[in-house]
């Protein structure tokens, strides 16, 4: 879509400078209170969101939030406090409260800042530019017009579009500063924008709902509102008149927008908190082959205009590009400093989560994958939370399309797909090149060669 002009005066750097000065002052106050170590986070966010339905405005919300978090360590005792009030008495009280909490907690051998030698440091030319600051000075009236145009295009696409769940436009800009007593201080800023629409096709018991949305860091990277609306209509219409699917064992193709949930289950299982609590089906899995030997997942924190790029994690630890899975083998866990100490390992620079993950493709686009799968199921929606993180057992409600002879024949819903994540990972036969760009987990469609499908027969 066309970009929207931003004002000549962008005060974000001045606001970041103010937050950095505030963080430094709070660290000094923590030291004065006797803390051995301290860390401070300062955040500020501004945003606008509108929702419309059936051609009428439902909500217009303007937000402006800020927060200060202070954590102190007295030896191995930890205390934290937060406030949204930037007045001096409130800031002093927040530091005092964090220190009082720390003095009354038990020692935790794993507590403390991340190791000083792991802190990120700027290069000779400073911190890298991730091209992630694109403020959209969007007036409420214009935001409403965009949402109305999106919904109208979808409703007008076909007379069978009988109703709408609404359309929305949103924009936000956030600033963040993290500083700690190792001398690290990092400031970052980012923007996020979206337009989306959900439509209802058919009448009465035959109604089907689906939608589409566009999400980007820069407004010019968003899809046009009319295109989003028409795609939402197409998706809703495609789901009309679903038919039964017999229970059996089939290849299952997870479309790109739901395939990233499989990576999400992997991340949950190899993240430090689940591992040191031994609440994961992948405990002690480091160095094991979990996937076929061609399968790979790489993390790239330095991707320009990546949806989650950054030179440091939420503890100030330097991020690095690395493989999570290579040759089907799990290369590392996903750790912050606390979980790493509990496991006797070192932080992987993932406090606060992973950055930009890319699942390597070994197949063509969606249509080619459907054509090559014979008889099976395409899953476009998942429902429920039927995943056991301890055993890996997987059972979720699903909707999608029946595939027969390499062609989609009809929509299906009211089905359940089941398996075990270990077996599902090993049974992955292909990853498509049809990457969904709307997430920091970038993957195409994923074909699992064998799963149990409980149909309606």
TrEMBL record:
Entry's Gene Ontology molecular function annotations: metallopeptidase activity
Swiss-Prot/TrEMBL keywords: Hydrolase, Metalloprotease, Protease
Top class in the EC scheme: hydrolase
Domain Metalloprotease TldD/E central: start-end pairs: 134-239
UniProt xrefs under Gene3D superfamilies: PmbA/TldD superfamily
Metalloprotease TldD/E N-terminal domain boundaries: 38-102
EC number: 3.4.24.-
Tagged with keyword Cell wall biogenesis/degradation: no
Record bears the keyword Membrane: no
Ranges of residues in domain Metalloprotease TldD/E C-terminal: 247-455
InterPro entries according to UniProt: Metalloprtase-TldD/E_C, Metalloprtase-TldD/E_cen_dom, Metalloprtase-TldD/E_N, PmbA, TldD/PmbA_N, TldD/PmbA_sf
UniProt family annotation: Belongs to the peptidase U62 family.
The protein's name: Metalloprotease PmbA
Species the sequence originates in: Luteimonas rhizosphaericola
Lineage: Bacteria, Pseudomonadati, Pseudomonadota, Gammaproteobacteria, Lysobacterales
């Amino acid at each position: 879509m066309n970009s929207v002009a931003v004002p000549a005066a962008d005060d974000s750097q001045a606001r970041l400078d103010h937050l950095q000065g505030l963080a430094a002052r709070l660290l000094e106050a923590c030291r004065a209170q006797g803390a051995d170590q301290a860390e401070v986070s300062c955040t500020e966010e501004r945003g606008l969101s509108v929702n419309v339905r059936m051609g009428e405005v439902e909500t217009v919300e303007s937000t402006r939030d800020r927060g200060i978090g202070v954590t102190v360590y007295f030896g191995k005792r930890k205390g934290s406090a937060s406030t949204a009030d930037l007045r001096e008495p409130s800031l002093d009280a927040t530091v005092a409260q964090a220190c009082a909490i720390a003095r009354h907690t038990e020692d935790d051998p794993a507590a403390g800042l991340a190791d000083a030698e792991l802190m990120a440091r700027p290069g000779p030319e400073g911190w890298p530019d991730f091209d992630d600051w694109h403020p959209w000075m969007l007036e409420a009236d214009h935001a409403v017009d965009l949402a109305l145009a999106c919904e109208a295009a979808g409703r007008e696409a076909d007379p069978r579009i009988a109703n709408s769940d609404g359309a929305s436009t949103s924009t936000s800009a956030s600033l963040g500063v993290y500083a700690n007593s190792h001398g690290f201080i990092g400031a970052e800023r980012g923007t996020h924008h979206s337009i989306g629409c959900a439509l209802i096709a058919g009448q009465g018991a035959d109604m089907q709902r689906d939608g589409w949305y566009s999400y980007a860091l820069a407004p010019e990277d968003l899809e046009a509102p009319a295109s989003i609306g028409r795609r939402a209509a197409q998706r809703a219409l495609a789901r009309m008149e679903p038919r039964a699917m017999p229970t059996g064992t089939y290849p299952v193709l997870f479309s790109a927008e739901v395939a990233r949930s499989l990576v999400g289950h992997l991340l949950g299982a190899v993240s430090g908190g689940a591992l040191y609590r031994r609440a994961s089906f992948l405990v002690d899995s480091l160095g094991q082959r979990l996937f076929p030997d061609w399968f790979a997942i790489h993390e790239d924190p330095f991707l320009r205009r990546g949806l989650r790029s950054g030179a440091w994690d939420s503890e100030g630890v330097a991020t690095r590009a690395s493989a999570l899975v290579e040759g089907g083998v799990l290369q590392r866990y996903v750790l912050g400093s606390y979980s790493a100490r509990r496991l006797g390992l070192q932080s992987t620079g993932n406090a606060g989560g992973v950055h930009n993950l890319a699942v390597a493709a070994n197949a063509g686009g969606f249509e080619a994958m459907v054509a090559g799968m014979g008889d099976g199921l395409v899953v476009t929606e998942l429902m429920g939370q039927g995943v056991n993180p301890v055993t890996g057992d997987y059972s979720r409600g699903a909707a999608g399309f029946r595939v027969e002879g390499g062609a989609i024949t009809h929509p299906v819903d009211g089905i359940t797909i089941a398996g075990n994540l270990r077996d599902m990972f090993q049974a992955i036969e292909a990853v498509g090149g049809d990457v969904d760009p709307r997430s920091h987990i970038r993957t195409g469609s994923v074909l699992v060669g064998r799963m149990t499908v409980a149909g309606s027969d």
